[in-house]
TrEMBL record:
Residues 196-230 are annotated as: Disordered. Keywords: Coiled coil. Signal peptide: none annotated. It comes from the Eukaryota. Residues 217-230 have a biased composition (Basic residues). Residues 16-50 form a coiled coil. This is L1 transposable element RRM domain-containing protein.
Amino acid sequence: MGRNKGKHLEDILPAHKEHKNAIEQLQQQVEALQERVEDAEGLAQQNNVRIIGLPEGKEGRNPTQYVEDWLKTIAKARLSNYFTIERAHRIPSGKTQPGASPRPLIARVLNHRDRDTILQVAREAEPVIVDNTRVSLYPYYTLAVQRRRASFQAVKKRLKAEGLPYALLFLARLRVTYNQKAHFFDTPELVCDWQDTTFPHPGPREHEDALPPRQAHQPRKDKRNQRHST
């Protein structure tokens, strides 16, 4: 009886190991596909502008035309001849309760350069006022992209404290300039590794307690998980 049980286990273990390996490979494939979907969604939204504070109903029955005309008055001659708002709508749909804050309005700009111009003009013109109400314009990001960009907050503070120029690029890529050379990072952990290698420090670094834990690092599985320099 014991011999039969042992032989049975010998037959099962190889199959179990094979199934475990197959499951791990499928999990990796799912994660890689999920990352591609998130990137595709983020890129699809890159021409969108999020408008906060615009009074409800100000856009009338044709929000697309209203936003296009309104932005032309703000940006004036700095927009291209092809400037167009493809569509604009409030989120979420449905009317708000009396006294509630206006719902955000999302507008899709046809040309990406025009979108950047609009955001730059809005920053320069702050505050933007409509009907005695302050209106703000921001880039629009998907939730996945927002989370990835937010993950760099701690390392950005550390870079600022050390006087290193940086910029968070679209979708969520950090560029750090050192010795007139640009370095690009796709995760905050890669930034920390580069800093620790470039600027060795005998003791705990300032702001070290604010950094994401190293053991929590989950590297992206595509080639973008590499640090590049130009």
